Amino acid sequence: MKKKIEILAPAKDLIHGMAAINSGADAVYIGAPQFGARSNATNSIEDVAKLVEYAHLFNAQVFVVINTILYDNELETCRQMIYQLYDIGVDALIVQDMAIMEMELPPIVLHASTQANNRNADKIKFLKDAGMKRVVLARELNLHQIKQISEASDVELEFFVTGALCVSFSGNCYMSVANGERSANRGSCAQNCRLPYNLIDGNGETLIKNSHLLSIKDFDVSDQIPNLVEAGVVSFKIEGRLKDIVYVKNNVSYLRQKLDAFLENDTSGKYEKASSGKCTFTFDSALNKSFNRGYTDYFVNERHQAIGSWESPKSKGQYIGKLIKTSGNAYEIENGEFLNNGDGLCFINENNEADGIYVNKVENGLAYPNVLKEIKPGTFIYRNNDTAFIKIVEREDSAVRKISTTLLLIETKTGFELIATDEDGNASTVNLVHPKEQTKNNESIAENFKINLAKTGFTPYTADEITIMFTENWFLPISKINEMRRTAFEQLSEIRLDNYKRHEHQLVKTSHPYPETKLDFMYNVSNKMARKFYERHGVTEIEKAFELQWDPGKSRVMTTKYCIKYELEKCPIHQKDKMGEKLKEPLVLKQGELEYKLKFKCKPCEMEIWEKDAEFEIEEDHFH
């Protein structure tokens, strides 16, 4: 059996979800009324139901995100909501809290959210054996590690392909809750990682001022799709449940075309598309045309270059060219002829901060801004608001998805019959009782029939092959032809939805040993059911979730693969030959009242962020 390879798109709401499907998504993920890790991207059960029906028409799937940690008083509400989601036909739930594995549930498929920190082959195999059908891999993994995980268990693997990166291991960031009780694990991340900080060394000297030292570039591994498929990934996930419709359509269409090219050129015959229909676009998609902070492939191909986006956490956009000069009250920019009235431009000013202007008008190759700012010749200019592109993409018909059909019109004893067969083999038949009359002059009007049968208009179908088999040149009013066509396609939609096969899986309680017997706060155990789940699988010591036991001022608030020493070319392992003088530790990040100490764990190649009153030993680098 061929492996289905899927593009999975974010849906803020019903409109964004439908736009993602129209742009070529094989599946979408969306928040329910509660318990999603984006508290301002919730949706009613009714809207999710409408999205399910629309997606299933194209054999696309809908996954609902229930990836916050749950408190005891929420468990029953959550369970009841899961039944409602099952009843409306949702294909799977993406979950973090193991309490859900302990509930009495309908036979709905479960996926382990990336918040469950899925980066270890043993733990992923454990989740598979416990009943998870899919695991959303941690973004920090490289190709070799993904392959190892794939070989260790035959669970479906999902991996992010484009979008923003969490600087922390997902599910293990407590900065937000430690600074104001807004918990990222409860859907309310305050994005402390996108703030500007000063970097101070162990002597109290400021090394870097007012820089976004924890802000990293956005992810793009779209050119790694063949390697990732080979490593075992079956689903490519786009981040962005809070992003606008232009971002969704641009990212999905870009990846659709990338994946289609891969599938067309695949000579192994092992892989196929995961849903039906063909997309057409009125725009040329490019990742740099919608929100981005510049791109990195992170660690997919190991650690090689800097990944920070220190100047600004805002969107950089598309590189246009260098500023040639300021001419009167306008700018002369390389490739400035490609700019449009209303475009937003971005540049890094002399204080090393992101700055921007709007273009009021473009005339004779000059860009006239809304505010004339002093910009040095040679400064790189980016466009982060492309008005012409946005205008095209926002149109409803900029991305259209159609299912291919063949139509056959034949005569019957009592009249005529139209059979519509789609690309998946579903067939709809319409009979018309009608007297047989020959055309005037006995001339064939089959071509006229074909022209009208081909008018599929706003239906989700195209009629790619139309055959008319008559023994005589029969006459039929065009109104009857149109009516038969309309009915055939309406019936076909009903048949497609009736024939849609949702995968179901009934959880069975397991008791195989968990790979650890002691769990610290980073396992996010916040209720009695999750505790029971782990205890049944042999865990003997379980610390409460951070949110329930936080020790103000002294806690570890983040663990990350991102390393400020590496960014500064001061890594004693990877940059030994060019690092020069060692940094005096502990390094401190300071932002107003906020202050954090950095701890570098070189063996696992990780950095930890601790609150200012924490005490720890500084590790020596001599183990290599």
Strand ordering within the main sheet: 1-2-3-4-5-6-7-11
* Major sheet attributes: 8 strands, parallel, barrel
Examine the coordinates and then state which fold CATH places here, giving the name of the CATH topology of the domain at 3-165 and 217-275 and 283-289: TIM Barrel
CATH homologous superfamily name of the domain at 3-165 and 217-275 and 283-289? Answer: Phosphoenolpyruvate-binding domains
Number of strands: 30
Integer-rounded radius of gyration: 28 Å
Supply the CATH class of the domain at 3-165 and 217-275 and 283-289.
Answer: Alpha Beta
Strand content: 25-35%
The CATH architecture of the domain at 3-165 and 217-275 and 283-289 can be given as: Alpha-Beta Barrel
Outline the low-pLDDT stretches.
Answer: none
Q: Average pLDDT, to the nearest integer? A: 94
What is the helix tally? 15
End-to-end distance, in Å? Answer: 47 Å
Helicity range of the residues?
A: 10-25%
Give the arrangement of secondary structure elements.
Blueprint: E1 3-11, H1 14-22, E2 27-31, H2 45-57, E3 61-66, H3 75-87, E4 92-95, H4 99-102, E5 109-112, H5 121-130, E6 134-136, H6 143-152, E7 156-163, H7 175-180, E8 197-200, E9 206-211, E10 218-220, H8 225-231, E11 233-238, H9 245-265, E12 271-273, E13 278-281, E14 295-296, E15 318-327, E16 330-333, E17 344-348, E18 354-363, E19 366-369, E20 380-385, H10 387-394, E21 399-411, E22 415-422, E23 427-433, H11 446-453, E24 461-469, H12 478-499, E25 518-519, H13 528-536, E26 541-542, H14 546-549, E27 556-560, H15 564-567, E28 587-591, E29 594-601, E30 606-611
Parallel strand pairs: 1-2, 1-11, 1-12, 2-3, 3-4, 4-5, 5-6, 6-7, 7-11, 10-14, 21-24, 25-26
Antiparallel strand pairs: 7-10, 8-9, 8-28, 13-21, 15-16, 15-20, 16-19, 17-18, 17-20, 18-19, 21-22, 22-23, 27-30, 28-29, 29-30
Helix pairs in contact: 1-2, 1-9, 5-6, 6-8, 11-12
